[in-house]
Backbone:
């Protein structure tokens, strides 16, 4: 039984990273219907910015982390302004090609820094050790990762509900024409959605840095994990991103923990979530929480 | 000086002129109607005024502001609001929330950083609420205020669309076929609302409407569009007798 709980806990920890990563992806999709293939690179930019400041410049890890959040937001903002704004109204496939192109550009740029290959670990971010209860142990980094994610999501949800910027974002996601006629600058909202996505991506990168090591492939890989998460939760649903993230994290860990032993070569953790995904889509083609498209007449 | 002036506006879509050298002048407090057959360019004209389209040639000014290349949110800020021909409401929330969204997105949004969090700006919020409740009262939407907009009958949604535009407290209100598809009774209500908007609020109204009976009854002046051109303009009774207008309607119907 304690084995099960152990898997459950690591599943939730990994799942909260996925949830954070997916949140940013959904924000962009919800506001502007853009599918961002460079999301994993935002996660990497956030994580390595913090690492560079903490290790390279010797700043306090917390200051480095705060700076990384802001810096990635700025990168997100200008990415939209420079590369995506000219494409408003263009076919979705062109926009997707641009985000794929951005992913390789960001990848190339990161390779120019010392962080393109190898493993790195953020120093002394979170306290060592952990708590043990009934044979189940949770490390402090794991615990804090989950708490941090929960606090971050709550703050974000509050902002989205209560601030005028959040209200404008939701209005644009709901009906762009109406929002424009009510005085919302859609351009501004798109750029802010990208900035917000940058913040959440950096937060995800920081948590990965706290609970495991940093390497470019792994971080970019999280950007790809976002796809099953958001398809499961619903491409345009923020609660869906959170629930989907946790579910995929749990499935991965439980499958790896129980099924790998029976499958030669293992790797069920990577496959099992997709099997469940297919099943869910069979019954709910728009994901668990996604809006069903209503044809306009 | 005219409140709104559209000067020699042409709007082309890849060789097709949706508007062709259109001139329109509107004085404060007027009810000006725009009529014409389907595809004549009526909605395109409103789209140019509200910044959703930008004229290929010509100039549009409103109270001294140049609207020609301005974006929709800027133009809303100048005091121009519109109701869409195809209803564009936030379907998942209530009537009240639709109207409040108009206040929050427009007013608070433009005031900017000083009051990003509306929870802290009580006074403004009380004022917003008052404006919206007035509009609900005015448009007789009391029975529906908490109802989800997506579930309301078509005629009521058309009314909510107008109410939301009114919540912006505009100086110029653009109404694109606000009575289309309504029952006779609903139409009569809408006519009454439009007349009240003019009389009690002093708002200038540009109305696009296919029901010529209504148009001739309530308009101060009428513009007739056909194939993107103004083929007649003047008082309703003059326009009704204009041979070019009769030709456009008879020809358009054939
Ligand atoms: N975005 C667009 N792209 C291409 N053509 C357009 C566009 N918008 C309008 N048009 C064309 O411009 C012309 C005028 O259209 P518009 O919608 O202004 O007509 P309307 O007078 O409002 O008609 P209706 O009474 O049917 O609403 C039509 O031929 C239409 O096809
Ligand atoms: Mg029209």
Residues:
């Amino acid at each position: 039984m304690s084995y099960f709980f152990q898997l459950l806990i690591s599943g939730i920890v990994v799942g909260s990273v996925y949830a954070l990563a997916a949140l940013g992806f959904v924000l962009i999709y919800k506001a502007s219907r853009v599918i961002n293939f460079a999301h994993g690179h935002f996660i990497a930019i956030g994580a390595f910015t913090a690492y560079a400041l903490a290790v390279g410049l010797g700043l306090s890890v917390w200051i480095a982390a705060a700076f990384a959040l802001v810096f990635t937001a700025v990168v997100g903002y200008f990415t939209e302004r420079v590369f995506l704004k000219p494409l408003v109204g263009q076919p979705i496939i062109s926009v997707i090609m641009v985000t794929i192109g951005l992913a390789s550009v960001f990848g190339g740029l990161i390779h120019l820094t010392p962080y393109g290959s190898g493993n790195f670990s953020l120093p002394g971010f979170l306290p060592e050790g952990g708590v043990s209860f009934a044979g189940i142990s949770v490390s402090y980094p794991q615990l804090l990762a989950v708490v941090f994610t929960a606090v971050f999501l709550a703050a974000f949800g509050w902002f989205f509900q209560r601030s005028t910027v959040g209200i404008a974002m939701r209005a644009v996601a709901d009906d762009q024409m109406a929002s424009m006629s009510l005085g919302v600058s859609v351009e501004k909202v798109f750029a802010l959605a990208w900035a917000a996505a940058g913040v959440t991506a950096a937060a995800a990168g920081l948590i990965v840095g706290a609970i495991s090591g940093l390497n470019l492939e792994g971080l970019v890989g999280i950007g790809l994990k976002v796809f099953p998460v958001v398809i499961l939760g619903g491409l345009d649903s923020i609660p869906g991103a959170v629930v989907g993230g946790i579910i995929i994290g749990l499935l991965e860990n439980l499958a790896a923990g129980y099924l790998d032993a029976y499958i030669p070569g293992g790797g069920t953790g990577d496959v099992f979530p997709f099997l469940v995904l297919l099943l869910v889509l069979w019954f709910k083609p728009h994901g668990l929480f996604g809006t069903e498209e209503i044809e306009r007449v | 000086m005219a409140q709104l002036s559209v000067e020699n506006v042409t709007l082309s879509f890849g060789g097709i002129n949706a508007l062709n050298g259109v001139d329109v002048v509107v004085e404060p407090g007027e009810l000006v109607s725009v009529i014409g057959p389907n595809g004549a360019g009526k909605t395109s004209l409103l789209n140019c005024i509200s910044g959703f389209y930008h004229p290929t040639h010509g100039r549009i000014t409103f109270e001294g502001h140049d609207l020609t290349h301005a974006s929709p949110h800027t133009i809303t800020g100048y005091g121009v609001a519109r109701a869409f021909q195809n209803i564009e409401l936030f379907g998942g929330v209530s009537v009240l929330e639709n109207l409040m969204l108009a206040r929050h997105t427009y007013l608070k949004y433009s005031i900017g950083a000083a009051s990003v969090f509306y929870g802290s700006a009580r006074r403004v919020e009380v004022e917003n609420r008052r404006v919206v409740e007035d509009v609900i009262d005015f448009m007789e939407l009391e029975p529906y205020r908490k109802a989800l907009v997506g579930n309301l009958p078509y005629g009521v949604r058309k009314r909510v669309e107008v109410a939301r535009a009114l919540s912006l407290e505009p100086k110029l209100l653009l109404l694109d076929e606000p009575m289309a598809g309504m029952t006779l009774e609903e139409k009569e209500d809408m006519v009454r609302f439009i007349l009240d908007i003019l009389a009690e609020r002093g708002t200038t109204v540009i109305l696009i409407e296919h029901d010529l009976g209504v148009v001739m009854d309530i308009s101060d002046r009428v513009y007739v569009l056909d194939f993107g051109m103004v083929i007649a303009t003047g008082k309703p009774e003059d326009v009704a007798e204009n041979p070019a207008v009769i030709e456009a309607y008879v020809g358009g119907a054939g």
The mean pLDDT of chain A is 88. The beta strands of chain A are 130-133, 136-139.
